[in-house]
Each structure stands twice: as structure tokens, then as C-alpha cells.
UniProtKB/TrEMBL annotation:
Family in the record: Belongs to the NADH dehydrogenase family.
Annotated FAD/NAD(P)-binding domain residues: 11-279
Sorted UniProt keywords: FAD, Flavoprotein, Oxidoreductase
Name this protein carries in UniProt: NAD(P)/FAD-dependent oxidoreductase
Domain of life: Bacteria
Keyword hit for Oxidoreductase: yes
Coiled-coil stretches: none
EC number: 1.6.5.-
GO molecular function terms attached to this record: oxidoreductase activity
Required cofactor(s): FAD
Pfam family, one: Pyr_redox_2
Length: 361
């Protein structure tokens, strides 16, 4: 058997069909046999969950449509355990799938940080469809409290306020809303939220969530619905299986995105703690996950042997249907002064988001 034949017969398993996993599977599947394990039938496109919550039509292609023409089999199941020594994945069906190389791309989930009642009474982005139904089924308009002043919270608050003007939307955050943007970028975000009637509660620590509102260090905030958009955390499966992880639970990887403890496992997307020279630790984002997936597709299909490289370009927000922000940034993720705002920013965000789907292949 030649070395090329041996390579061709490798079985590569990809866990997760998010930005990183799906783009990796389509890239590897150009040349090798791949099994993609993910419970979804359609691409989630998580950066559009605020649109789902507001009742906007979504553009989420079928995963099998994205995989067309590739040597990829989509196994619709959820991974529940990894046997790293035996190189096997245990599924929720009880089935066991063996691999030669594993690409771990399970991504991240909303973190509740142990806040009492947050998981029980708060709607994270993952439950956007349920939130939409809850709003539609309400007997009368009320108050929606969105917890989190990051990109997810800002977009959720703006979209809900525009789609449901009869509801009062409160944006509650422990820090400053959009505080990482340039002065111009943050000023535009604040102006847009004010125009939409969103009430801001900055520097407010949420200590509990109840069925009818929030408990905070400054007192109670009444609310009929609570949207939880505080931050993200990696799924615990990597740490539970024995992969080396950082204190946040993200898997430690080398410059080719291989686990430092198990080099036959490539970890990409939000699940990976990736350090890039001159940039530092990459943040969890679609903007970082997709390039990792494309790189791993090239690496494992033999189209590159170079280490992973990355530089930031921009951050973008939608602020309703007619407003947005495209904040230009330096390669190390620090802010530039320049920002595209208003309808131009909205068009730029829409182009980027729509381009993500096309770039998965």
C-alpha cells in the first residue's frame, strides 16, 4: 500500500456543523472520506438568532445541501463522549463511531455563570424560536429585559425593539453597552438604541432571574420576559474526555490547531484556545471560527502545510433592519477610529452575513 493510498483511506470525523465544523468538513471532503456528526438538519447561522427571535425569515440552508458533491456523510446525532485512547466517538443513540483523525468543532453555548434562575427563566440565543413564540402568544405587550451589553445583547435588544415597538425593551449589563468600540462606534450604538426606545441599565450586576424579572445589586428590575445574552462558554465534552484545556475550558492547540495533548485531534472554532503571534488569544466569534474551519480543510486535504495565521479586519452589528455598524479594527483586534454607520453599516453587515453561507464551501 502506497503512502497516498493510506492517506486516502483515513477516516476523518468532524464533530459539529457550525461555522468551523461545516467549513472544515466541506474542505476535507474534497479528497477524503469524512463523517460529519451533528444533530441539526439545517445550518444554524447563530449570528442571525436575533432575527429569529424577532420573527424575521431566516436563511439557513440544509446541511446536506452544503455538503453536496463532497465525500461527506452527515450522521444526524449528538456526540456524548469521546474515547481518545481507542479513537472512538460515542453518540446519543448508543452507536460508536471510530476515527483515524478527529476534528472537534462543537463550539460554544450561552453561559449562565451560576446566576440563580437564569437557565430556568432566561431565554438564551439558542432558544430564539421559543422566544418568538412566547412574544407572539403574549396576551398584551410588556417588558423584555435583555441581559448582556455585548454584540449578542445589543443586536437582540435592537431587533426586538424595532419588531415589537409596543413592548418596552431594557438592556441590562454589568459594564458599558458596546464599551469596546471606538468612541464613534459606541456613540452610534447608543444613539440607535435610544432611537428604538431601548432603555439602558449599565453597570448593573444581575444576581438572580425570576419569572417576573431580574434581581440586581441595585434592586429589582420587573420584566415579563428575560433574554440571557451575557457571554459564551465552550461545551464541556473536550475537558471531560481528557483533552488539555485552559481555565475557561477551551482546548489548548498548537500552531496547526492540533490538541497539545492528543495531536490526532484538531480543535477549531470557539472550542479552541488559539494563540496567534502578534494577535494573542483569539476571541470566540464567527469571524475566527470560519477561517479555522477553512484552514483545517486545507491542512487535512493536503493543500497547505503552513501554520494557521489570522488577522482581524472589522466588527459589525445590525441595529434593526435599517441601521448598523461596521467598526474597522487593527489586526490585533484593537479599535481604529473609522466606522461605517447607518444604512451603509447595515448593508455591510448583511453582505458579510450572507457571504458566510457561500463561503462554507
Amino acid at each position: 500500500m502506497t503512502a497516498q493510498q493510506h492517506t486516502e483511506q483515513r477516516h476523518i470525523v468532524v464533530l459539529g456543523a457550525g461555522y468551523a465544523g461545516l467549513s472544515a468538513a466541506t474542505g476535507i471532503g474534497r479528497r477524503h472520506r469524512v463523517t460529519l456528526i451533528a444533530p441539526e438538519t439545517h445550518f444554524l447561522h447563530r449570528v442571525r438568532q436575533h432575527e429569529t427571535a424577532a420573527g424575521r425569515p431566516g436563511r439557513r440552508p440544509a446541511i446536506d445541501h452544503v455538503l453536496r458533491g463532497r465525500r461527506v456523510t452527515h450522521h444526524q446525532a449528538r456526540a456524548t463522549a469521546l474515547d481518545l485512547n481507542a479513537r472512538k466517538v460515542v453518540l446519543d443513540s448508543g452507536e460508536v463511531v471510530a476515527y483515524d483523525t478527529l476534528v472537534y468543532a462543537l463550539g460554544s453555548r450561552t453561559a449562565f455563570h451560576g446566576v440563580p434562575g437564569a437557565a430556568e427563566h432566561g431565554y438564551p440565543a439558542e432558544r430564539a424560536a421559543e422566544l418568538r413564540q412566547r412574544i407572539a402568544g403574549a396576551a398584551a405587550p410588556g417588558t423584555i429585559a435583555v441581559v448582556g451589553g455585548g454584540a449578542t445583547g445589543i443586536e437582540m435588544a435592537a431587533e426586538l425593539a424595532e419588531a415589537h415597538p409596543a413592548w418596552q425593551v431594557e438592556l441590562v449589563t454589568a459594564g458599558r453597552v458596546g464599551g469596546w468600540f471606538s468612541d464613534r462606534g459606541r456613540a452610534h450604538v447608543l444613539a440607535a438604541l435610544d432611537r428604538l426606545g431601548v432603555h439602558l441599565r449599565e453597570h448593573t450586576d444581575v444576581t438572580g432571574v425570576e419569572p417576573d424579572g431580574l434581581l440586581t445589586a441595585d434592586g429589582r428590575v420587573p420584566a415579563d420576559l428575560v433574554v440571557w445574552a451575557a457571554s459564551m462558554e465552550p461545551y464541556p465534552l473536550a475537558a471531560e474526555a481528557g483533552l488539555a484545556v485552559d481555565p475557561d475550558g477551551r482546548a489548548l492547540v498548537d500552531d496547526r490547531l492540533r490538541s497539545t495533548s492528543h495531536p490526532e485531534v484538531h480543535v477549531i472554532g470557539d472550542a479552541a484556545a488559539v494563540d496567534v503571534p502578534g494577535v494573542g488569544r483569539l476571541r470566540m466569534a464567527c469571524a475566527t471560527a470560519l477561517p479555522m474551519g477553512r484552514y483545517t480543510g486545507r491542512l487535512l486535504s493536503g493543500r497547505t502545510a503552513e501554520p494557521f495565521a489570522y488577522r482581524y479586519v472589522a466588527q459589525c452589528l445590525s441595529l434593526g433592519r435599517k441601521d448598523g455598524l461596521l467598526q474597522l479594527i487593527h489586526g490585533d483586534d484593537s479599535m481604529r477610529t473609522a466606522a461605517l454607520t447607518g444604512f451603509g453599516g447595515r448593508l455591510a453587515k448583511a453582505a458579510i452575513v450572507n457571504g458566510v453561507v457561500m463561503s462554507l464551501r
